[in-house]
Amino acid sequence: MRFMVALCLFTTAAAAQTHIRNGDWQLLPDANAQYQFGNLPNTGWRSVRVGLSWNAQFDDMRDFGGVGWYRTSIPAQPQGGKRVLLRFSACDYFCEVFLNGARIGQHEGGYTPFEFDISSRLRSGAASELIVRVTDPPRDPGRNQQLFPQFMYDELPHGKQNWYVQTGGLWQPVTVAERPAAYLKSVHVTAATSGDVEVTATWDPEREAHASLIIRDPAGAVVAEESKTASSRRSGVPAEEVFRVHVDNPSLWSPESPALYTAEIMQRVGSAVNDSAEVRFGFRSLESRGGRLYLNGRPFYMIGALDQDFYPATIYTPPSPEYLRDEMRKAKALGLNTLRCHIKICTPAYLDAADEVGVIIWYEIPSWNDEEHWTQQAAGRGMQLFREALDRDWNHPSLLIQSIINESWGADLKQASERRWLAATYEGAKTMVAPLGRLVDDNSACCQNFHVKSDLADFHQYYSIPDHADAWTKWVSDFATRPKWIWSPFGDAQPTADAPLIVSEFGNWGLPDLPCGEAQGKSSGCALPWWFSRDFNGREITMPAGVIERFHQFKLNRIFSSYNELAEASQWHEFESLKYEIEQMRAHASIQGYVITEFTDVNWESNGLLDIWRNPKAYANDLAQIQQADVPLVSHDANVTSGEHALVTALWSHRSGRALPNATLQITADWGTSYTVPLDPQRAAEELKEEQAGISTGIQPGMAAPAATRPTRHLITAAIREGNGSLVYASHYFLNVFPKHQPLGADVSVGADSPGALRTAFGSKPKAAVLIAAKWSDATVAQLNSGGAVVLLADSVDALPPNFPVQLKARANSNYDGNWISNFNWILPSSPVFRDIAFNKIMGFEAQAVAPNFVMPNIKPEQFDDALAGAFYGWIHDNAALVVQARFGKGKLLITTFRFDQYGADPYATYLLDNIIRYAMSSEFAPKLDLRPQETP
Questions:
Q1: DSSP per residue over 78-91, as a string?
Q2: DSSP, res 616
Q3: pLDDT of the residue at 16
Q4: Contacts of 843 by beta carbon, 8 Å cutoff, 6+ apart
Q5: How would you classify the pairing of strands 645-646 and 703-704?
Q6: What Cα–Cα distance (Å) separates residue 836 from each residue in 310, 313, 832, 833, 921?
Q7: For 386-400, how does the pLDDT look when each residue is reduced to its tens digit (9 = 90+)?
């Protein structure tokens, strides 16, 4: 099987001078497409930078949709039989080009290059006038239909521009290049890991020429060469010459060793070099076999992240090659080996950086819409882009996987015709990439959609962690069995056992630090990016603007000294979630990798491992540790009672292929307990022999929890060591130890509608200082009117009456579930309710058993002084209370949506409710919020 290729032409003969024309341009916005070429006004033009979208440059063009006219002049070119090529690296979306008053051509498609030979159209001895008309249709369907019915926005491959910020115009560079009369047009290199190399050079010779190929290794040494003499060909007709050479014992390209070779083509006419080009390439192979991935014939476990490839100031345009190399290095420092460039064709510079640093790239055809609207024209545009990108990116060793659609966006897979289209498109794409050995994903699936025919059996799933950790574990366990729901349920799927299982999207949010004084708790103002005021299609929950004001408004400054402290706490919550999710996936040998959502934050979307400015989040070093090839996977209860047996289950995820026959797993607790367990050497040897690195046998040693007189957090370290004692990997886990439960013996009565565990623990009394109830009733009103206290456990839709000042909202099937934009459940550590169990200011796995099904969203900002616990979503939106206290009549009321069905079984749930009861009986219970019913005159 043949694999590998190189990059685009990156050097040419000295005579092929290139003039970069990013400056000295002017732009005329034409929103209503009212102007025509030849009748353009003299006024209204503005200076513009080419190589950057107009959306990124002008405040009044952030959402611009319409026509933009560019103009510049091309200096007089030297004579002497040279060709002059005008090349556009990319233009979004439809480009018409005029030179010296004549239309010279057009191009449709926003991501790929195109060029024109302008040799015969340039003025002799004088500058030439270049005008470019760019059409980027508006998102509004009505205006779109009126102005550009041939370019309907939801039928154009635009990717996720409508999610974040649009990109229009000449967003990649424009160049003018002088080339010989007979010049090299392209060089494609196809290499096999065996060392066989095929180089296809395309040129337009006008007479007999001599051509030679030289292959150099990464150190620059010549390792293969061949020469040919091309016969005379008809002028103006491109011709191909194919060279076939062999490189002995080639160094293979991989993330661990990104070895890049160079192919140099030289064309001579007589003894003079007429034209030349160099391209880089690498030897590598990727294949799926038996449900596993193999890179260069060795088992490969994908550790990836989604990369939307947006930038804070330049949107779609990468700031510089070094910027790209730096972010690729940061990806590898996080333990990543793959980036899934999401619904986007990345730039050649992005792929260059991945080739050099050693990051595998998986990219996708930009979607034409994120609904299920499909037309032949839309699909045709998508595949035209696929073909053009394939030609552009033929030579990049880092590019290993390409997708057709994502989550069924742009196709209704309930329709048989569209499933047939998807299967046929997969076949066509597979044929096109066959020489390169790339894998093709038909539909990166999610939710209710599926695969039809694909090289990967990948799927997306999102759950708020730890609130829905059990649901995540159940889903992963099901996915690991290769369930039928991965594939079309209509009887037309073509599943294969070779398709590896990959969880290709999952993740949680962690807010970024903000680079301004007020965010750091200082008094200075806070200058934030212009896109902070952008939301996603009018959804307020997605807007960053006002986050610092909301931080103060909802009294979070009682808990965190600054917004940035809150942000860092949210980042550690993100890490805790990711760690759990990753370990659950790695516990299943059948799952061959994962892709975290996502590599960097993107404008309003803050689930990145880096923020949008490419700063690593607080947990970067810890994440890198859990993303090593060989890791122990330790599971245990988050909460235990002093003196009880704490069961610790460990698995060994062995993915490196390293022989570690005498390895041991060492479990150490910070209270002094430690033990070592040999890892199964026979199992490790079998895995290596079968090339099936995976999961070793589970170990269940257990340990006794230490004595505790108060709730205490302890640290457990799990370390894999080689036979000589050297450390392979270490990971850390928290264990919360609680004192043995002592019955309260308090003056408490439990209503008949409360959880059974509470009725058993406290019983029912005719009169008590505190009444625990699960629903509002005459009994609760009577208790309050008599001056007593009520603790209302609001865990049902009818727990409060419809007209009550405090309302409940179910989290399920709404934004409040936290599965899309993460929720952060916070506590007030200074409150007696949480003072001695405030392990985190944002609740983690210690509180999983009490994670609420309901929130109280209608608490006003000024009432949050009486909120002892609450939740916010994303950029401190949808603020809701989880514990609120109030006066009612003569009595006092505490309402909480925390669940207490595990009272007596889970130490945290038990301790928390006991604290609530103690608080309700104490003099510290002094709410300010007044919910007393209004008296009727």
A1: P-SS-EEEEEES--
A2: B
A3: 53
A4: 825, 826, 827, 869
A5: antiparallel
A6: 44, 45, 8, 8, 17
A7: 999 999 999 999 999
